[in-house]
């Protein structure tokens, strides 16, 4: 028996993604059918729609930042049951690959996904973004991608933990290991960047510098914990950061744009032995020229952080609890509540810099 669903499907790179009907086969072994309640509109989905990351894989069922209710489970599922409130994770460690066996499940190279059982009205198989696909009324995922959280917590806020918030908070706490009394600079103050700011605050940083070219985003950054702001259009941001930190630079810098120019600035605003964490997804093309002697003399490290180096089963409930305790601000990240049919306008608002997150709430 199939389930009828509606979702936002991107068929041609660069063209508008439209709401269409599609069907979902019953869950197979270790698979779960989730009734989606809400989904954040992340910049990665815009990149997928535009073909920024490649043109293979169309048609895509967009969305990868979602929360919902388990509606049906396949054989062998033991971690969730019908009626559970769950955040969906786009990385679910397999437990068997070389990284999982080496105690590094956050780097799993064989993440668990459901079989592709979702098809459009012509029988064409849909490709769910990052193995989830959440811009829809229902989706099919592997049970390992479902992380239970309290049903009392609001769905729009919980959906954001599924990607952008986790990516930012985890980059600060896990990738950089922000320590009490340390300093941080965050380049790019959208939904992910502001989550880095929150992670730095939660880690005990006492100097947190937000860097952007949009005055509105710099104002928003203050409510998440930024102690200083730098508008990169008004001068050299590296010099401004050095001035704020008595000429030293910051202990930790974060690039949340995906630009070679901002990554270069993030590298050279560090103090000696500082850490630079690269979070922004660049797409093909950009290159960085690195003066090796200067890089060596500065010491420290440059590293990439995927998904905030998180373990969803551990970290999603942790972030949900922090939200319920008032330590993690999520209400402020939700800029707009929209319907499925307003997804294209949400992408346009994102490009104009008007939102941190638009969140689709299903009818």
Give a brief outline of the structure:
The chain is an alpha/beta fold and 363 residues long. It contains eleven helices and 18 strands.
Descriptive overview:
This protein is α/β, with parallel strands linked by helices. The chain folds into two domains: 3-162 and 329-361, Medium-chain alcohol dehydrogenases, catalytic domain (Quinone Oxidoreductase, Chain A, domain 1), CATH 3.90.180.10; 168-307, Rossmann fold, CATH 3.40.50. It is built from eleven helices and 18 strands. The chain has helices at residues 43-50, 98-101, 155-161, 164-175, 191-202, 215-224, 237-244, 260-268, 292-298, 312-324, 343-351, and strands at 3-10, 18-24, 31-40, 60-61, 66-73, 85-88, 118-120, 127-128, 138-142, 146-148, 183-187, 207-212, 228-231, 250-255, 270-278, 301-304, 334-338, 357-361. Strands 3, 5, 6, 9, 10, 17 and 18 form a seven-stranded mixed β-sheet that branches. Helix 8 (260-268) links the parallel strand 14 and strand 15 (270-278). The model has no long low-confidence stretch (mean pLDDT 97).
Tell me the name of the CATH class of the largest domain. Answer: Alpha Beta
- The total number of structural domains is 2
User: Total number of helical segments?
Assistant: 11
N-C termini distance: 23 Å
Q: What CATH architecture of the largest domain would you give? A: Alpha-Beta Complex
The string of secondary-structure elements, in order, is EEEHEEEHEEEEHHEHEHEHEHEHEHEHE
Q: Layout of SSEs?
A:
Blueprint: E1 3-10, E2 18-24, E3 31-40, H1 43-50, E4 60-61, E5 66-73, E6 85-88, H2 98-101, E7 118-120, E8 127-128, E9 138-142, E10 146-148, H3 155-161, H4 164-175, E11 183-187, H5 191-202, E12 207-212, H6 215-224, E13 228-231, H7 237-244, E14 250-255, H8 260-268, E15 270-278, H9 292-298, E16 301-304, H10 312-324, E17 334-338, H11 343-351, E18 357-361
Parallel strand pairs: 4-8, 11-12, 11-14, 12-13, 14-15, 15-16, 17-18
Antiparallel strand pairs: 1-2, 1-4, 2-7, 3-5, 3-9, 3-18, 5-6, 6-10
